């Protein structure tokens, strides 16, 4: 693959550390959520950052598929990514799971299902997670 764009970020100190992107746009403290035994507070964490990236990327994949199919989904649609983390039941360590809830106002349910399923096929985040983590797609009506 020839990369069209590359992004880079460096984290110092792990989940309760600090992350900064190479261009300085992201420059923030991280904190382990209380649910995972951390301090929580008004700080982000890897799961929130992953959810933000996945929801944005999936939304763009949805726009791409809709455009190819000549379906106008407008700009009022929403993609909510919920990222869960838990212990791996067999191997130890941790696993992620993702639920993508998609709202497509004014789009027929059958067409909406087709769009989100095809978007899942072309989204780079979906491809990266394929056969690695559980991803659930929900068309919210």
UniProtKB/TrEMBL annotation:
InterPro entries found in the cross-reference section: KH_dom-like_a/b (IPR015946), OHR (IPR019953), OsmC/Ohr_fam (IPR003718), OsmC/Ohrsf (IPR036102)
GO BP, sorted A to Z: response to oxidative stress
Entry-linked Pfam families: OsmC (PF02566)
Lineage: superkingdom: Bacteria
Coiled coil (residue ranges): none
Family stated for the protein in its record: Belongs to the OsmC/Ohr family.
Name of the protein: Peroxiredoxin, Ohr subfamily
Source species: Galbibacter orientalis DSM 19592
């Amino acid at each position: 693959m020839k990369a069209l764009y590359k992004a880079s970020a460096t984290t110092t100190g792990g989940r309760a550390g600090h992350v900064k992107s190479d261009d300085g746009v992201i420059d923030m403290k991280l904190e382990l959520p209380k649910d995972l035994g951390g301090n929580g507070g008004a700080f982000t964490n890897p799961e929130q950052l992953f959810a933000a990236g996945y929801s944005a990327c999936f939304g763009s994949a949805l726009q791409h598929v809709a455009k190819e199919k000549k379906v106008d989904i407008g700009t009022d649609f929403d993609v909510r990514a919920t990222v869960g983390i838990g212990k791996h039941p067999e191997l130890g360590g941790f696993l992620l799971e993702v639920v993508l809830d998609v709202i497509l106002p004014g789009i027929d349910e059958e067409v909406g299902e087709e769009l989100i399923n095809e978007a899942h096929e072309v989204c780079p985040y979906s491809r990266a997670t394929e056969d690695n983590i559980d991803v659930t797609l929900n068309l919210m009506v």
